[in-house]
Amino acid sequence: MLKLNTLCLFLLLSFYGMAQSPLQPGFTLLEKGDFEQAETFFEGYLADDPKNKTALICYGRAVGLSGEPEKATGMFSSLLEEYPGDFEIQINYNESFLWDKKFKEAEPLYAQLVKEYPENFGAVLGYANTLSNLKKYEKALEWVERALIIQPGNLSAKTSRKYMRLGYANAYVNAQNYKKGETLLKEIFIDFPEDRDALLNLANLYLITKEVDDAKAIYKRLATSEKDSITSLNGIALAEHIGENDKQALVVATTAKEKADAFDDATIKEQTYDRYVQALIWNRKYIKAKTEIAELETQYTNKNWLYALKAMLGLYTGSPKKSVANYDAILKNDSASFDGNLGKANALFAADRIVPAYNAAFGTLKVFKDQKDAIGFIDKLNISFTPTIDEHLAYTFDNGNNVAFSTNTTATVPLSTKFSTNLAYYYRTTENTVTDNKASSHVLSAGFDYKFLPKTTFKAVVGLNKSSFGAESYTQPVIDTKLLLQPFKLQNLELGYKREIQSFNADLIEREIIMNHFGFNYNLGTNFNLGWYTQAIHTTQSDNNTRNLLFTSLYYNLMRKPALKVGLNYQYLSFAEQVPTIYFSPEKYQAVEIFADLRGDISENTQYMMSAATGLQQVEDDPNTVIFRAETGITHKFSKRFSGNLYGKYSNIASATAAGFEYTEIGLKLKWLITKKPLFYNKIVK
Q: What does UniProt give as the signal peptide span (predicted)?
């Protein structure tokens, strides 16, 4: 965060240089910043000379600058009654409002003062600083330039200009006008070459814009001393992380830790240990990170950075409730903490507590107006709950001479963070190019999702399926219900029942086969990149046949960016009755395959995915045959509210279709956010 200096101006009034030897010790104390001692000195002096105006002014300054600005304002106000129009008293009176951070009250006072004394350096610079504290940076810079015309090269004025540029640059960065912010920061080097504050803010700007090489170059410029070299390494480690090179980030952070251990500076050590543990977490070395945190807690107590590390570890390891508790501890220490406020919002979101997450993000923006990350977080929440229309078009053909075209249009309208409704229309037409057998299906359905507990959601869809073949048709109800829950950390379970009509090809549609699926999906994640997914389905059919399906997959996440997953799949399929002339229905079918799945970014708005699997399958006791399936797709975000996905896939696995054919599908998915924000947004915004 950019640290703005209040810049209370220590005006060295003309009387400071006067040959008044009795007051000289007090002047010296004021100049050195020993305000409490100065207050004692002038209080004692006034006991003997209560009407000395100079001593009274200096006493007022000492009182105000030692922590009682309101009392000082009252003292100067009384002096103005006794000496109306006195410039020295008036300028101290004005400045006392700055000490008390009452910048709005000070602004008109300084405006009047510079109107009366336009060539007075102290008045002009005081007005400039007042405007700067009110974040009126453009006007403040105009007035500080006037002060520098009056006293060219004045160090106080240059220092004021530096902090004005820092504040103005920060405002531009928050408004995402990075080029203007960069220009202002670089202008600081004219007065203060290689200024540390300017370099740190410039490096932070480059981190925000992900110009990693530029950020690292700035951090290297900071390394002009042993202490700053450690700060430099800490910054470079963060830059490596943002540049998605976490292994190098840990190497750099480890080097910084070794240097900090040998350096006697408590603040540097805390900053470096903080970055080192972050780097361990980035590299998924969770056990080591937990051990390091435990050791640090024996040395440091009630430290916000330690609470932040524990919260970060909780988010990475699937323990968001613990993260919320740690962010609460940060906010107890500092209610204006950025990490505490936005960190809590992210933790609440991870814990599936959406409304509290919204409130925490709104609270962040109250403290940090227009902060980019907080706005981005709220946008992410909004997208999750904004009404949408999804369109899915697909063209399918197989080696059994069946071709099909389908379209599925779904409108989803969340009415709250817990309750959402949907309406869908599905149409599929299919024909066999050899037999000329044609059929079509129309399905109209409506449903809802209700989250009655965090991470526990019930979904239900009911509708009607009208299937037509030749001159005949029939209508059947369809049902799809699911219960989605997370029984334990890093585990997801889905229980479901689905009633559907077989519609793969014209022959099956004509037979009016109703299928009732009862099943579950279970996924177990771990903190060491290994995962296990299992699906089990028992199906009863209207033709009195039954089917049992088991699919299980053990997978390992090799990389995160791009995301590369590899694994081993096993599938078992069994039908009670074998009717091979109608549909694929073996007594026993097994398949084993290895697979790889790769997903990543082509650009900021374009992503890709590729997956492939190959292995062996066995039908009944027949010899093993080779299977292969593959899918690829590209997704592009055309605007904030409209995106599309083009994909293609192929499979020759026998169980992929009801008929046991190999098939190819080409499809297009479109998604449009109907409104800019959720319908309930105005009810929760604060």
A: 1-19
Q: What is the pLDDT of residue 502?
A: 85
Contact 358, 641 (CB under 8 A): no
Contact yes or no for 269/231 (Cβ under 8 A): no
Q: What is the pLDDT of residues 616-644, one digit of tens each?
A: 999 998 889 899 999 999 999 999 999 99
Give pTM, 2 decimals: 0.86
Beta bridge partners of 534: 522, 552
Q: What is the pLDDT of residues 59-115, one digit of tens each?
A: 999 999 999 999 999 999 999 999 998 999 999 999 999 999 999 999 999 999 999
- The set of residues, in sequence order, having a beta carbon less than 8 Å from that of 8 and lying 6+ positions away, is 65, 95, 98, 99, 129
Q: Which helix (H) or strand (E) holds 666?
A: strand 663-673
> For residue 686, what pLDDT is reported?
67
The rounded distance, in Å, linking the Cα atoms of 495 and 520 is 4
Identify whether the C-beta of residue 526 lies closer than 8 Å to the C-beta of residue 558: no
* Sheet strands (E) in 486-562: 491-501, 514-524, 530-541, 546-559
* Structure tokens that stand for 100 in this block: 């008390």
Task: Tell me how many degrees the CA angle 177-362-204 measures, rounded to the nearest 5.
Answer: 35
**Contact partners, residue 183, CB within 8 Å, separation at least 6:** none
φ, ψ of residue 431 to 5 degrees: the values are -150, 155
Sorted by sequence, the CB contacts under 8 Å of residue 199 that are 6+ apart come out as 218, 221, 222
Is 504:430 a contact under the CB 8 Å cutoff? yes
Let me know the angle formed at the C-alpha of 685 by 683 and 686, rounded to the nearest 5 degrees. 120
Q: What are the beta bridge partners of residue 547?
A: 539, 575
Residue range 357-362: mean pLDDT, rounded: 95
Distance CA 181, CA 464 (A): 59
% of the chain exceeding 90 in pLDDT: 83
